[in-house]
Amino acid sequence: MKRITIYSLLAASGALAVSVSGALAATTGGARSEGGAAPKAAPKAAAEKPLKPNVVIILADDMGYGDLGCYGHPTIKTPNIDRMAAEGMRFTQFYAPAAVSTPSRASILTGRYSVRTGMWGDKFSVLYPDTPGGLPNDELTIAQVVKGQGYNTACIGKWHLGAADPHMPWNFGFDYYYGVPYANNFIPLPLMEGPRVLEDSTDQSLLTMRYTAKAIDYMTKSIHEGKPFFLYFASTFPHVPLYASQKFSGKSLRGSYGDTVEELDWGVGEIMHALKELGIDANTLVIFTSDNGPWITMKQRGGSAGLLHGGKGSSWEGGFREPGIFRWPGVIPAGTTCYNISTAMDIFPTVAKLSGAEIPAGREIDGVDMMPMLRDPENATRNEFVYWKGSELAAIRRGVWKVQFHQYDDWYQQQGITVENKPLLFNLDNDPSEAFDLSAKHPEIVEQLTKLKDDYLSKVTIRPSVNDTRKEPNSKKPNKPE
């Protein structure tokens, strides 16, 4: 069976002209047929020049802990992501920084909990197209840090940290931007390249193909320039509404949700193939994760948190705990599983150190350098994690123990069960599904974690919310996470 390539798929869909720039054709020798030539390797001089490691972050949108083959899904086929895990390190306790999009994305790029950046909301959990602000311009992103070390930087896909200047990717260190400014359930959804709007309302069924083509384009261009690159590939999917191209639509046993995940998996495979063809596979750290848990209130249109309880918008494990896969041949031991706590905020200091950059003194960073653990999964680099819901510290974890102070099963109605007088305690190593409350059996641990919560709250400065600067709509609707 011939491998479906990015070029053949785009050509078949009629999207090639819009999706692949002239630079792609120039650097790869033109469109290839199925099984044909891939991107040309870098010129010998550039290939021999020692470069700092390239970094690729592939961020899914609303993917659940149980949505990949390598995390136990029985019908969604993800051979490329599974191969990435087999060739790298798979985390079983990897956390998104927040349970909804905007605060999570801000934290991933800055290495800071969203309460420090203002990218949180108690009225509006995420940014809307008409929210007046965005990521504050005094925040520092991974792109800005590595750009100062000679990196090319690209953001491809969903942004969701502001809808206009001065809160767009090019304001935060990204040389190149191609994608959509916010979640795909906001209509119309414009497709942009830099500040230029290519399409006022884009065909979402073509987005995964187009993003993949642009990613390969950018990597190829960077290597031919003899420069390392940082690529932030933020997929629009599997966020609802679900779209897949003709080649993938109606093919998955898991229905339309599976179609979008399997097409994303295909895109991951194309990117990994391009890294090998360009001769930079061994010098590239590739990371795969998701911004938050599955949108389970969408029922069969949403994903699965597997054995975990809850989903997007909740402080249960299903809202925060995500697939976390790291691959770097020769550096990260292949076929390893890490059972230690980690979070996507740790990517910021890890990549900063790999690039040779120093984080400015005085800036509070909540992430920690993961490289000791990526080299040896027994080297734990953190022992605590805080579950923020807006400005509220809803839960906290230290070691195996987690205390839930509030539970929000139904974010849409904002009906939480307040349990300040009786917090719930779980041993997550024994009970990752949070089914058995142990607070009565271990009141001393509840007391310890409650004091830890109070200590966090006494030290953190909560920046005023940007999300809540949005004007209340005339017709009040539940605050739904996007």
Helix content: 25-40%
Tell me the radius of gyration. 21 Å
In percent, how much strand structure appears in the residues?
15-25%
Total helices: the number is 14
**CATH architectural grouping of the largest domain:** 3-Layer(aba) Sandwich
Class computed from helices, strands and strand pairing: alpha/beta
CATH topology of the largest domain: Alkaline Phosphatase, subunit A
The quaternary organization reads as single chain
Number of domains: 2
Arithmetic mean pLDDT: 89
The CATH class of the largest domain turns out to be Alpha Beta
Based on DSSP secondary structure assignment, what is the total number of beta strands?
17
Query: Shape, please?
Result: globular
What's the story with the biggest beta sheet? Answer: 11 strands, mixed
Superfamily at the CATH H level of the largest domain? Alkaline Phosphatase, subunit A
Low-confidence parts, pLDDT < 50 over ≥5 residues? 16-37, 412-417
Distance N to C terminus: 39 Å
Topology:
Layout: H1 6-13, H2 16-19, H3 22-28, H4 44-48, E1 54-60, H5 79-86, E2 89-95, H6 101-110, H7 114-117, H8 142-147, E3 152-158, E4 176-180, E5 191-193, E6 196-199, H9 207-224, E7 229-234, H10 255-277, E8 284-290, H11 317-320, E9 321-327, E10 336-338, E11 342-343, H12 347-355, H13 371-375, E12 384-389, E13 392-398, E14 401-404, E15 406-407, E16 417-418, E17 424-427, H14 443-459
Parallel strand pairs: 1-7, 1-8, 2-10, 2-11, 3-4, 3-7
Antiparallel strand pairs: 2-9, 4-5, 5-6, 8-9, 12-13, 13-14, 14-17, 15-16
